[in-house]
Design brief:
Layout: E1 26-33, E2 36-39, E3 44-45, E4 47-49, E5 53-57, E6 61-66, E7 72-75, E8 85-94, E9 100-105, E10 113-121, E11 124-131, E12 141-144, E13 148-158, E14 161-170, E15 176-183, E16 195-197, E17 209-217, H1 223-230
Antiparallel strand pairs: 1-2, 1-17, 2-3, 4-7, 5-6, 6-17, 7-16, 8-13, 8-17, 9-10, 9-16, 10-11, 11-12, 13-14, 14-15
Length: about 240
């Protein structure tokens, strides 16, 4: 089992590490601040939907709590292009077990990429990735409800088939789990130019969670790179 080292917020300020192994092609690098998110790629802030609130989470530090539909934060001004390679990542805590939740999305169109938690599993929610209205990657890893967690997934689509590499890190125990899968019949479409944190922005799917950091890029990461990142998940958002 690898150990995850939590970077103490008191010792470092938020700042995108442009030399980080996951920073290539980055489009969103957001940290929670005052009940909203600041996107460190351009200094922009999100558009609040519903009533998410600022919290100081004992394990995550500054976070935004999403407690009900339609709580969400949209990050506007993003490209409307869709990419064949994508990576999404979040640092968060699931607060309540439900059958389906959404934590991060590239937009609201029928082909946008989402991070979801699906299928209640006792005290866990299975994490997966999906495209709205299309295929999902199935149950990838069970995240503990109430515990701090890092999850990242990376997609490479070739001729309609997506290879998915993923990693999950339990920030309380240090346990890292990773794997890969593939899905056919995924299609690329036009994005609407807004990334969504705390929901997928459509379909009434929202995350009952505290979210501290979120990332989206247009590069494909290998499992070895994802696992290396998972040994210090905060390093992208809080540079040394």
């Amino acid at each position: 089992m690898l150990t995850v080292v939590r970077r103490r917020l008191i010792r470092s300020r938020a700042g995108l590490d442009s030399a980080h192994i996951a920073a290539g092609g980055i489009q969103l690098c957001a940290v929670a601040s005052g009940g909203n998110f600041v996107d460190m790629t351009n200094g922009g802030i999100g558009t609040i939907g519903g009533a998410p609130v600022a919290v100081m989470d004992g394990a995550l530090g500054p976070a935004v709590k999403f407690a009900a539909n339609p709580d969400s934060i949209g990050i506007p001004g993003k490209s409307t292009m869709s990419y064949a390679t994508n990576t999404l990542a979040v640092i968060f805590r699931i607060n309540t077990v439900t059958s389906t939740q959404a934590f991060l999305s590239t937009g609201t169109s029928g082909t946008d990429l989402n991070f979801l938690a699906t299928t209640t599993n006792g005290a866990n929610n299975f994490l997966t990735v999906s495209r709205q209205g299309l295929a999902t990657a199935g149950n990838l890893v069970a995240a503990p409800v109430g515990g701090p967690y890092f999850f990242a997934a990376s997609e490479n689509q070739v001729a309609g088939t997506s290879a998915i590499n993923w990693v999950g890190a339990d920030l309380a125990t240090g346990q890292i789990t990773s794997g890969s899968t593939s899905i056919g019949s995924w299609s690329l479409g036009i994005r609407n130019g807004t990334f969504n944190i705390g929901s997928r922005g459509a379909g009434n799917l929202f995350g009952l969670s505290n979210i501290s950091a979120a990332m989206i890029s247009n590069q494909f990461l290998s499992i070895s790179v994802l696992r290396q990142w998972a040994t210090d998940p905060w390093s992208l958002w809080y540079r040394k």
